Automatic annotation (TrEMBL):
It comes from Arthrobacter cupressi. GO terms for molecular function: ATP binding; ATP hydrolysis activity. SMART domains: AAA. Keywords: ATP-binding, Nucleotide-binding, Transport. This is Manganese transport system ATP-binding protein.
Amino acid sequence: MSTPAILVDKVTVHYGEVLALDSASLSLEPARICGLVGMNGSGKSTLFKAIMGMVKPDSGRVLVNGQPPVKMRREAGIGYVPQSEDVDWAFPLSVRDVVMMGRYGHLGFTRRPRKADRDAVDHALERVELSDYADRQIGQLSGGQKKRAFVARGIAQGATMMLLDEPFAGVDKRSEATITRLLRELAADGATILVSTHDLHALPQLCDEAALLMRKVLMHGSPDVVLQPENLAMAFGLDVMNRG
Ligand SMILES: Nc1ncnc2c1ncn2[C@@H]1O[C@H](COP(=O)(O)OP(=O)(O)OP(=O)(O)O)[C@@H](O)[C@H]1O
């Protein structure tokens, strides 16, 4: 069997007294898209941070392509699309500046972008259909366009792994379809993708597999099985598919 792209092995994380992850385990093969489903506070963002090496587990281990995550992060291999609430949208950065951040790991010692960096940014903007918005301040985009700008940052970075925290929150159907298509294309090119979402209806279209999180991974498998009402009831405690 090949080395998993992501291996989370019995990871426990506390924030002070709060137990955010409780011996959580998840193994993801390369070039797969996995949907991470769990209620607020179930530990989704913490799991992402552990995979990126931004949170150190109290116990257990994380390996990314068989390596400690910090090494993978240094090699600029992990693209991250944060939750909207985690971004300061008033920051004076253009869309192009945000996408150029993906090139920081590639810049030479002068830290000045070269032609190859500018070309990579232009290509990424084209791919997410934001070329016409390149010079806009990032906060002046719609919810879906903002998400696409961060996906472009990952593309410019050449990320082989993409972690997306709630990419469909505050996003209209068209942007949702564009993001879904893009992620499927990236996975077809070999990228491994982990997506947290409350939008359960979007999951079967997007994901090859799904995992239910409630501080630990309760279940991981094909979306058809994982999204069965009785399994969702176990993670959420109610009939979520029929809400709203
Ligand atoms: N920096 C922190 N300090 C203290 N507690 C934290 C911190 N970050 C998260 N927590 C707590 O850890 C638990 C898991 O939080 P986390 O953000 O990982 O959940 P989540 O599933 O991403 O939630 P949401 O869907 O609301 O974004 C929650 O109880 C949360 O309050």
